[in-house]
Amino acid sequence: MKRFVVFGVIMFLLVSGSAWAADAVSISKYYFQDLGLKVVKIDWTDSPNAALSATDSDIDKFMRGWSVYKAETAPGTAAAQPDDDYDVVLNQTAFGVTIDIMGGELQNRDETTHERAFPLVDASYAPVQIVSGLTLVVTGQTNAAGTGTVVLYLYEY
């Protein structure tokens, strides 16, 4: 079953302490039980010169115990196109440690091309198990109407 959640909440960026209002995230969840596959689609809109940071506790339950083995990014088009080399980070905080589950592999995304990446753990590509909530952070884009999509593919390992 697909569930659509839209966030319109002003959030505070922990690093800078600044606030912004034009950011939005919508999340769609898909469970292909016969394939043992879960897919999470995150659509984002980012205001200029700000970082987008969003969490969803309901999605935490959906993903917990499953492993992310691949992520895909798709930029918006035309006026909704983000800046070239925008960055996406998916942070997981567990037991007091925060890590980018993709190991930096979603950095420098192209503004026109759909791209695929695999989690980098130390020097190897490997699935990363989700044990706590994820935080999406999009930076390096200044287009007031910049949008994009991040799609996560999860298997139960």
Structure description:
With about 160 residues, the chain is mainly beta. The protein has one domain (about 5-155): Jelly Rolls. Helices cover about 5% and strands about 45% of the residues. It has one helix spanning about 55-65; strands at about 5, 10, 20, 25-30, 35-45, 50-55, 65-75, 85-95, 95-100, 115, 120, 125, 130, 135-140, 145-155. Strands 1, 4, 5, 7, 10, 13 and 15 form a 7-stranded antiparallel sheet that branches. Strands 6-14-8-9 form a 4-stranded antiparallel sheet, with no helix packed on it. A two-stranded antiparallel ribbon has the order 2-3. A hairpin with a 2-residue loop joins strand 11 and strand 12. The longest helix is centred in the middle third of the chain and has 7 residues, at about 55-65. The two termini are about 20 Å apart.
Q: Which percent range describes the beta-strand content? A: over 45%
Report the C-alpha radius of gyration, rounded.
15 Å
Order of helices and strands: EEEEEEHEEEEEEEEE
Distance between the termini: 22 Å
CATH architectural type = Sandwich
Q: What top-tier CATH class fits best?
A: Mainly Beta
CATH topology: Jelly Rolls
Question: What would you say about this model in short?
Answer:
The protein is mainly β.
